[in-house]
Amino acid sequence: MTSWACCPPATSARRSPHSAATTTGARPGPASSSTASSPAATCTSTRSVNLLIVALWEQLGDHVQALDLVGRLLGAQGRVLPMSAVPLELQALVKGHDPARPDDVDTVRGQATVALTPGEVQSVHVVPHDPPAVLEAVAAVLDADWVVLGPGSWFSSVIPHLLVPELLDALTETKARKVLPLNLAPQPGETDGFSPQRHLEVLARHAPKLALDVVLADEAAVPDRESLTDAAKRLGATVELAPVARPDGTPRHDPELLAAAYDRIFRMHGRIGPWR
Fold this sequence. Notes:
Elements: E1 3-7, E2 19-24, H1 39-60, H2 63-74, E3 79-82, E4 89-95, E5 105-109, H3 111-116, E6 120-127, H4 135-143, E7 146-149, H5 154-158, H6 165-173, E8 177-181, H7 196-206, E9 214-217, H8 225-234, E10 238-241, H9 255-270
Parallel strand pairs: 1-7, 7-8, 8-9, 9-10
Antiparallel strand pairs: 1-2, 2-3, 4-5, 4-6
Helix pairs in contact: 1-2, 4-6, 7-8
């Protein structure tokens, strides 16, 4: 059985444990992706699930048990696990957060505020520092055949997974291969003006010992292949280009195309058979 662990964006805007989703023994694809018919439907369904999760957290008093129960209720394949056992607050050092003081560096607090800052994010950290990891999340990373880190908001969703020491140690020490899918476009505010290779440089600055195997990018989103290839090499990775964007031109990944790209990468680089 092939297992893979995925560290995608955390979805909660409140001060709570960030989430690392772990799916085991399932082929990534539409069954594990949200495909609501409209943005309004997506927003409504996400809010409903978040309310259900919070209610179960309060009733059961255990985040892992609550998320496992939600997964069973929704018929989900795999598990969603909190990355930390304690509530976290994301903080960032931002240059020019106040447009009236473009050269000043301020501390910006909160995931939503960091994501929407008009300034340049210099670095991010979590409070409390050195938070304990959820053991099940650490075990999932260590037991996986592949770890998928991303895609998502770079500073407020992807990098926070590297700020929990035990989880970063697991990501560094695991024998699993690691693939990093890049975003299709810079995010307004958070990564304005970022090239694909700058995303990798920022990641490396927050986790210097982390090595990758594959960087996945959409060819149309890579204006400078040579620079991206060089940045990936410094992380020990090769670059795989594949059409993974939605055909409507919006900077969003198409679940079917992304699943097909993962399938190809897992088979080519991991020498494992396809899930058929």
